[in-house]
From TrEMBL:
GO molecular function, one term: glucan endo-1,3-beta-D-glucosidase activity
GO cellular component: plasma membrane; side of membrane
Protein name in the entry: glucan endo-1,3-beta-D-glucosidase
Gene Ontology BP annotations: carbohydrate metabolic process; defense response
PROSITE patterns in UniProt: GLYCOSYL_HYDROL_F17
Ranges that cross the membrane: 46-63
Name of the gene encoding the protein in the UniProt record: LOC18588646
Enzyme Commission number(s) of this protein: 3.2.1.39
Species annotation: Theobroma cacao
Keyword flag DNA-binding: no
Keyword annotations of the record: Cell membrane, Disulfide bond, Glycoprotein, Glycosidase, GPI-anchor, Hydrolase, Lipoprotein, Membrane, Plant defense, Signal, Transmembrane, Transmembrane helix
Species lineage: Eukaryota, Viridiplantae, Streptophyta, Embryophyta, Tracheophyta
Tagged with keyword Disulfide bond: yes
Amino acid sequence: MIQYLHLPKPNHCFCSQSSFLILSESKKDSKRTPLKKPKMSPKRMLDCRYLLVLLFLALMPLVPNGNLVGVNWGTMATHQLHPNKVVNMLRDNGVDKLKLFEYNEGIMTALTGTDIEVMVGIPNSMLKEMSEDPAAAASYVYNNISGYCYDGGVNIKYIAVGNEPFLQTYNGTYLPYTLPALKNIQKALDESGVKCHYKATVPFNADIYNSPESNPVPSAGDFRPEVKDLAIEIIQFLYLHEAPFTVNIYPFLSLYGNDYFPVEFAFFDGASKPLRDGTNVYRNAFDANLDTLIYALSKAGFSDMEVIVGEVGWPTDGDKNANIQNAKRFNQGLIKHALSGTGTPARKGKIEVYLFSLLDENAKSIEPGGFERHWGIFEFDGKPKYELDLTGLEVDKGLAPVEDVKYQQKRWCVLNTQATDMGELPKSIDYACSLSDCTALGYGSSCNHLTAEGNASYAFNMYYQVNNQHFWDCDFSGLATVTDENPSEEGCQFPVMIAYGSSMLLHGGDLLDVSLRLVGVFVVLFSFLL
């Protein structure tokens, strides 16, 4: 998810507000002669019914289509919620479109019978095999996709072949495999012999296209020269099979990577001066980025290509611009804009988007930045971070949480202030953070204000919680101790991990725990014998 579009520094723009006129009527004399109910002829009644039908049809476009806003569900977390509970939460919130980064049997089982539309991802690590062996692609489809095609099965619509395989930081690793893998997967889908109609697509990063620095406007957009020919081949294949072009767009990353990027231009209600591109006016980075793609597609001869935004969102921690206020502002503005039907200057209509992401993932790589673990609109335990109206109707309704979540015991690991030798403290903190998640301690993050003692306690606790509160994981040569007093401060939470999922994901650790306990029992028994 590395971006993005070169844009000039905008100035301030005008913002318009709507005013509403409220009409009131004075009270009339209540002593009126009762009116008789008029009779209506059958022909007149029929005409009225026709008018009602026409009125309903006319108003239909004004109703947001829930199918246009989906969510990405990533699973790179040390402790995961039960899939059934997450799926129930999705249904409680009216989410009926879901994107998975890879096949997960537990999640697919939970989705069975729900009618939630699903896009199943194939990881980049599988592209080489899929590209070189059609039988491997057929086997993948048979084992993971077509078996769910039955009444009451899973509503799979798309197969995502890879994820951002042309990303510049991959240095061309997946370029030779993407198109052959796409062809083999689509062939396997077509020949699966089931009634369901699947479409394969490729989620691209927005760095596959850009505008030249000499003319940084959307209409000058085109595909990167080094991948242009291959990209057009893929687009031709997608177009032939009536599959969409999928792109991931992150205005946050434009802001993260450029201190001179106008902050307000990243949002949909910002006060930056608009970017003018001929007769087109751009008031936010999302539209400018998406239209850069639209123009690139048009230059390649695919002006009517269907486009899906496969990932878009805003993190809540791990950077100075990553916080709940900005995330709510961006995501709510995005949903309202996507469902409004205004579209972009170059393409009108509603925009199909998948929010990134559903839940925080504390095991993601932080090489791009600490924010990578904080994209969720829900916390790791399924609690909503902020109110978000997924309908775009500005309904004042909060998100429903995951229900009946089980937690580990309410205990924390903190710095032992009675310790006499603090010489190993820096190394101990580094060790704890390297094997857990200390991104909240970073510059501009939610726990950046803690004292040195608080930093140590936070690091020790994260290590302790990730390792399922084993007593030996809160020692650090006497520097740490367990407490039942919550050390959380305002704006900085010391979490307690969920109980379910750790046994599923960290079964090796649990096995070790049980084994060591058994060893301890035998040691005690042996000591008595002596």
